[in-house]
Design goal:
The protein has helices spanning 9-21, 38-49, 70-78, 103-114, 134-137, 151-162, 169-182, 186-206, 218-227, 230-248, 253-270, and strands at residues 27-31, 56-59, 91-95, 120-126, 141-144. It is an alpha/beta fold.
Length: 271
């Protein structure tokens, strides 16, 4: 569901569990600063629980407006929500920049939140719960997103995994320590690792750069794909998953990851 989305492991785990168990609230407030993948995660979650892809609606302000008006809410939600989905499943409304709703628009939305159809789910994307009026706020399940991190931090991790065969152990440990300080947690680091080696596997299989997550890194992905066997890539991905398990038990992540990368380096050098 969230394979191509970096970070926010806690949020993704919570929503994946909700989708698997069917314990889905009728309204959510996704709360996080600019730069967090609120929309991407909302869309992925919606597509998972929706009856069909046509039952996922993006609610937006008019291009000529600076706010979401009462007419926007009525036209995009109120007039449509009573139409049942085509198949069994949910019908989802994702309100982008929900903090731009004025008070009249939020009051119009409140009427739906008070008596929502059983198949309807409304997701409000906001930077702060203070952007919502009390009555709307109280009817939404709050989902807090971890702070956004600088894309440069992700770039540093990609530099690490792509250059591991030539880096000394000390440089690897320093890079991991810097990543822990820049990203929101160990799981975000491991997400980048997994997506990188997913790209290596995909490229090794079909040589199609359009399928890559890190498209701008095609040359480095190609080199890694040529240097590693399918078995090596599988073992590396298993090693990343083991690192994730060890992090739960507070085993020294930097040391464990350093040893992991030494193994990766040995695999690349031997070929």
């Amino acid at each position: 569901m969230f394979e191509n989305i970096t970070g926010q492991t806690r949020v993704k785990k919570y929503l994946a569990h909700a989708a698997e168990t069917g314990r889905i609230h009728h309204a959510y407030a996704f709360v996080g600063d600019k730069g967090t993948p609120k929309k991407e995660i909302a869309v992925a979650f919606a597509e998972k629980i929706a009856a069909t892809s046509t039952d996922v609606r993006l609610v937006q302000k008019a291009k000529t407006k600076t706010i979401i008006t009462v007419n926007d809410v009525r036209e995009q939600i109120g007039n449509d929500i009573q139409i049942k989905p085509y198949k069994e499943g949910k019908k989802i409304y994702i309100v982008e920049d929900a903090g731009l709703m004025n008070e009249q628009a939020q009051n119009a939305l409140l009427k739906t939140l008070e008596e929502p159809p059983e198949y309807a789910v409304i997701i409000l994307l906001v930077e702060s719960m203070e952007q919502l009026i009390d009555t709307v706020r109280s009817r939404c399940m709050k989902v807090d997103f971890d702070p956004a991190y600088d894309p440069a931090s992700q770039k540093e991790l990609i530099d690490l995994v792509s250059s591991v065969s030539t880096l000394p152990m000390g440089d690897i440990l320093r890079a991991l320590k810097a990543a822990k300080e820049s990203l929101s947690g160990v799981n975000d680091i491991l997400d980048v690792f997994l997506m990188w080696y997913r790209d290596v596997l995909v490229y090794k299989s079909c040589r199609d750069s359009n399928l890559l997550i890190f498209k701008s890194e095609e040359n480095r992905v190609m080199k890694a794909a040529d240097a590693l066997s399918y078995r090596d890539i599988r073992r590396i991905c298993e090693g990343i998953k083991l690192l994730r398990e060890r992090s739960v038990y507070n085993i020294d992540f930097e040391l464990s990851a350093g040893l992991f990368f030494m193994d990766v380096r040995d695999r690349m050098v031997q070929r």
